[in-house]
Write a structure and sequence with these properties.
single chain, 198 residues, alpha/beta, Spore Coat Polysaccharide Biosynthesis Protein SpsA, Chain A, six-stranded mixed sheet, two-stranded antiparallel sheet, 7 helices, 25% strand, Glyco_trans_25, Glycosyl transferase family 25 domain-containing protein
């Protein structure tokens, strides 16, 4: 399984041992050499730390010239494995930029799974040719977030909406991954992000 994925990087804060154990259990479907942990960047503002972490992982993918990378947050868990995996196998055969394995897909084509508007950075596959485009978007969103503190406009999964209609973004519905219920260091609330159980 997942032979078409070159590298998996999961983002995990050092103090979140609970989530570390969970995500390591989820990732046993991959050979050990494919999986890397990225020590999440801690910031007083959790959303800024999250954005910085995703930026750093994309920069890592560029440096290493991976043909693609599956980026996961440490609360991601498998869901709908049989149907979702079959759809993922089909989607990677198309020219794709990003495939969201888990998201809140508010607008997508039900025939092609082409995403027009979707949220949630818990689990997404990025193709190598798109790294620079997505990194530029992430950095612009991060700058806006630092300047304004407005997550509504500048959080990663809000700011990337501008790319989704114009580029080759796809989603898996029902989701292949969802977020487990746990304490969030971004929102300082307990529970899964509402709507990610697509």
């Amino acid at each position: 399984m997942f032979e078409f994925i070159e590298k998996v990087v999961y983002i995990n804060l050092d103090h979140r041992v609970d989530r570390l154990q969970s995500i390591q259990e989820q990732l046993k479907v991959f050979p050990l050499e494919k999986v890397l942990r990225f020590a999440a960047i801690k910031d007083e503002n959790g959303a800024i730390g999250c954005s910085k972490s995703h930026v750093a992982v994309l920069e890592m993918a560029i440096r290493n010239k991976w043909k693609n990378v599956l980026i996961l947050e440490d609360d991601a868990v498998w869901n709908n494995m049989e149907q979702g995996y079959a759809l993922l196998e089909e989607l990677v055969k198309k020219p794709y930029d990003v495939i969201l394995l888990g998201s809140t897909c508010t607008d997508y084509d039900e025939g092609t799974y082409k995403l027009k508007r979707g949220f949630c950075t818990s689990s997404y596959l990025v193709s190598q040719q798109y790294y620079d485009v997505l990194l530029h978007n992430f950095k612009a969103g991060l700058s806006g977030l630092i300047e304004t503190k407005s997550q509504v406009q500048y959080a990663l999964d809000k700011y990337w909406n501008s790319l989704q209609r114009q580029d080759n973004w796809f989603c898996i519905v029902p989701c292949l991954m969802v977020q487990m219920e746990s304490w969030s260091d971004i929102s300082n609330l307990s529970g899964a992000i509402l709507g990610t159980q697509c």
